[in-house]
Structure formats: structure tokens, C-alpha cells
Write a structure and sequence with these properties.
alpha+beta, five-stranded antiparallel sheet, globular, six-stranded mixed sheet, Taq DNA Polymerase, Chain T, domain 4, 23 helices, single chain, Nucleotidyltransferase, domain 5, 4 domains, Alpha-Beta Plaits, 19 strands
Amino acid sequence: MGTSITMQPSADVLLGVATNPMIVTTDTFNSTIDLFTKSMSTEWIIDVETNGLNPYDMHQLCGIGISTTNDKDNIYYFPFRHQSEEPNLSQSDLNKLVECINTKCKTLVGYNVKFDAKFLENEGIDIQSMDLVDVLVMVRMTEPTTINQLSLTDTIIRSYGDDAGKYDIDTKQVLRKNKWTKDFSLAPPSILGPYCIKDVEWTRRVYFDRLKKLDETKQSELFKFQCDLTKTLYTMEKRGVPINNAYAKVAYDKMLTRIEDLKQQVYKLAGEEFNISSPKQIGAIFNGMGVHSPARTSTGAEAWNEAVLVQLNNPLAGLIRQYRTLDKYRATYIEPYLDMPVLHTNFCNWGTVTGRLSSRNPNLQNIPRDVVYVEDRELTDSDRVDIKDRVAALISSKGGNSQTELTDDVLKTWSFLGGDKFNQHDSRQVAIRHLFVPRPGYKMVAYDYSQMEVRVFMYYVNNDEMNELMKQENVDFHGEAAKIAFNIEESDPQFKFFRQLAKSITFGVIYGIGRDKLSMQLNTTPVEAANYKATYLNNMKGSKRFFDAVVRTIKTRGTVRSRYGRIYKVPSDFAYRGVNYLIQGTSADIMSERMVEVHKYLENKKSNLLLQVHDEIICEIHEDEFDDVAPKVKDLMIENTLNIPLEVDMEICDPSWAIKKDVADKDKFKLEEHIDWD
């Protein structure tokens, strides 16, 4: 854990209202810079104001609010690019400020600090040499149930009352009234400066208050690690992933053609034109055909959402489903990238209750891995089996009967499902992940954890038999769990059923699935599902003890703590969710821990971390150092401070993220053996 954060001994006196907030002018600039130069603090609190939200698209800062952590009285706003009649500081002044920050600042503190850091680095500030401390992450860790209300204003109001956040609300009203909200540079320094100063002031207060809470809750070390992760994510975001714009254009045109064709097929089968995106109009069409929804909305009306369409064994429903899926792919995953040379997503280590990473703009967790067909195809027997399995899994996930036998007409409408094996030479196929490519001279390599959450679950269960199995490569966990939990041998004709049963119950426990949902997945009654689960927990030594201990702890204390020290607050009525939080959270912390170590290893190399999606990281590894670096990253992914035996699949993505080839033997791994394949 590299980040150095120390609690100020006199933190209490550092809280309160600044006595000398100042908008810096040409007359006061030199004296202000002199004050910062002489300051003994290397920890600076900074907030930037900008003329837009995208530091990669010509947007710039228009002002900077600054204070040091050891001086609560003096907070300054430096205006540089305001488009008003009020004067700005010069470019020469900005250069001097940048030099001062680079010389004195070792730790940058901010609320959602990565946003500020990107704009600061664009001005020449050496962010890579600084630690990044995100106060937003502190808020998430000390308020484990807070989901959406995570803005600075939300935090201030929640912690200190409505009056405390009034400055933000009042200023935002002025900005909206004058139509300055999309470009803060339009606001004069006399309005934006005090607003920025208050943001810095409150960031300071929240920072010191949450440092205390982290110390009180024994999460200080975990937070230092989260600071290292913030720096790792920042570096990944700045690097970004190149986009194959030529392929994006081809895929987009194919999608448009297919969507238009599907629209006409839908209209023909319905007998009239209607808004295919409107559930109400879809319902009217089906009602006219004598078809009624099996579900209801909260108002009692028939529901016509995706879950209903998936369950209807009807060719029109299948065509509508296909149309809407392809249109979503087009609008969400292809259109935004047509002219985007490099994708810069925003990774969030504060966006989930469990601690799992999420991403925004775009949400990489939702980038489809599946291939879609944009032309009709003749289905082979193998295709039919595959599509039936995929549709059954989808129907089951929506709460429907997965055993429903699909008619040939309906099955044909699902023929756009292509699985995850992409053939770039098949013009009928489109793969969203084929848009993402490495830079010239680099290869993309994917490192994917195998059964991460199952392994973490078994770590907490501490079953001797399963612990030994975890040390083996390519072990069938679910098959072994079935043998232990249901006393069945692999030679038994019912073994396949019990393996699936063990798998469903394992993930049911991990994800906190209740009896009713589990019964739908197992296609059995709730009572039978409960009995199966009880048998599993009783026979899988340690699992019932773990499950009961978590539930008991939550009902007694209201919280439960992971082995990494992360605290989860869970309502006592939903205590079973604590198991899910522990397992997902621990898995997330292992992933984050490994990403930090990989980032440290790659810091002085040409290779880079690019992406993190679920239990997978993607690296961009330079061909000159490939043979050494690629297997080393895999080794680093397997190591972890909890000493859980982990298994990682290493795959080369060539020429894109959509096309992968497994590298089974890392010890014999050589780049030249893997670069020429389809």
C-alpha cells in the first residue's frame, strides 16, 4: 500500500469556516504563490471549475480552488479562463501556479478527485508523481448503504443539515437562470469563485471527519489501498482503449439495414404499423390477437416489458424482441463510437455497495460479449440446441418456465443469437467487442478469473475437501459440490441433474436468492427448493455455519465485516444478503488488490492496464516485452494477501477484444506462436 495518509494530530482545529477566502487577482497573485511555496503541507485540497465535463474533448478548466490541509483559514480561487468582463489571471500566472503545485504538492485531495486530476494534468501538473485521495470513496466506505446520493452537496446536507448545502443550491439556481450550467466559464469569478471556495472548504471538513470515521471503524488501511486503486484507475482512464472506427461504421450500416427489415416483418405480422418501442401499443396489438400478458404492472394493467416478451411463445414477440435488442445495440454500443478514436471510460470504486468496480460513459460491465446475426441464417441441429439453451436460460432469468418447448417459427426469430464465438470473416455477424483494438505494436491480453466468487465462498466456508480441490487446476467445482452435498457419484444417471442443482444453490447462496426465485431456476416447488438448499448447507461442511453466522451477526449488530476490513450495513430483515455482500466484496477487493500490483509492475514498462470488466482485466502489452510481461501479469493476478488458490485464464485478443485464443501453458508461452490465427 503505497499511499501515505496521516491523520493530523490537531484535526479538530482544522475544521470550521475559512476566515480568509479570496479570489486571487493580479495584485495578490505573487503573495499567494509565496504563501503556498512557504507552506509545510504537501497535502493539497483542490477543486476545479471547467467549461465542460470532457477533459479529452477540448474542455478546459476556467478556475482552481486550493487550500492546504494544515491551513483552514486560507482558501483561494484562481480564475483563468472566465468569459466575462471581470479580469482573469494570465497564462504566465497559470504556469507559475502549475510549477508551484508540481514542486510542493505530493498528495492531491478532492471530491471525485480523478475528474479534477484529468483537467490539471492537461495543464501540465504532474499527477503521475502524486498520490490521489478521493473523499467520495471515504463517504462510500463510511456510509455503506448510501447508493445514489453521493454528490458533495448530498453528503453535506446528509451530514451537516440543509443549511450547510444552501450555498450550492443557491449558486446552481443563479447558474441555471443565466444558462451557465453547461459552461461554467460563462459565469464571472465573483459568482463562481465563492462557490468553488465553499466546495474546497466543505471537502476539507468531510475529509477530516471521514478520516476519523475510517479510523474508528478500523478501515484506514483499506482506504489507503483504495487510494492506490484510485491512482490505478486514473491511469487506465487516461490511457483509454482505441476504437476501430472503420468496423464501427460497417457494423452500424448492417444494423440499420437489419432493423429496418425487422420493422417491416413486425408490421406485416401485426397487420398494422405501430410504435415498437411502446409497451402500451405492443399490448394493444397482442390483445387484438387474443394474446394476454402473464404479468401485471403495479397498477394492475397488463405488463408488456422485456420479461413478458421473452416468455411468450409467439413469433411476433420474438421479432419484437430481436428488433429491440438490435436497435439497443446500435444506439448504445455502436453509434457513440463512430467518430471516437479512443474510448475513455470512468471507473468507479465508489459506485456499488459491495465494493465492486463499476464504470460510466460507457458502462463497460454491460458491453455485450455475445455475437449477433444481422442476416437470416439456416439453423443446424447444433445451432438449434445452442439457441434453445440460451433462450431457456434467458426465460429462466426473467422468471418464466424454461422448459417451454419453442415452435419452429419462434425459434427462427431467436436465430440472431450467436453466442460468444466471433468469426470476423462472417459478414452476417456483428460483435460489439470487435470495436476495441490494441494500438500498433501492442497485443491485447485478457486475464479472466475462473470461478472467483465460488472460490471466495469456499474460503469463508473453510471446507477441507473443497480447499484441497481449489489447489487443483481445471477442477469442476459444481460437480465436486454435488458429490459432497448430495452424496452422488459421477457415474449416477442423475449426476448431471444434481450438478446443476449444486451450481444453482451455490450461486443462490452467493447472490442471496430467496426460496421462490430458486424454485423457478430449479423448475421445482418452493418447498422442494428449500429442502434441497437445506440438504446442501447441512452436508457441505462449514457452509451452514458460515451462513448462520453472517445472518446472526447482522441481526445482532446490523453490520458485517469482510476479511479485508470492509463494513457492510444490512437491514436485519434481509440479513441473508450479507453473505452476498461478503463474497462479492471480497472478490472485488482481491481484484482491486491485484490491479494495483499489476499497475505497479507495469509503471516503468511500455505495457499498460486497459480495462476491467467483471472478473476480467485487459492489458495492452508491447510486443518488445511480451514474452516476459504477459506471463508475469498472470502470476501477479494469482497472488493475493488472503492466500486463496486462484485460477486465471490468459487469452490473447487478436485482432480485437472479441476474438480470443487461450494460452494454456504460460511456461512455454511465446508471442510468435500466437499471432497468426483466426
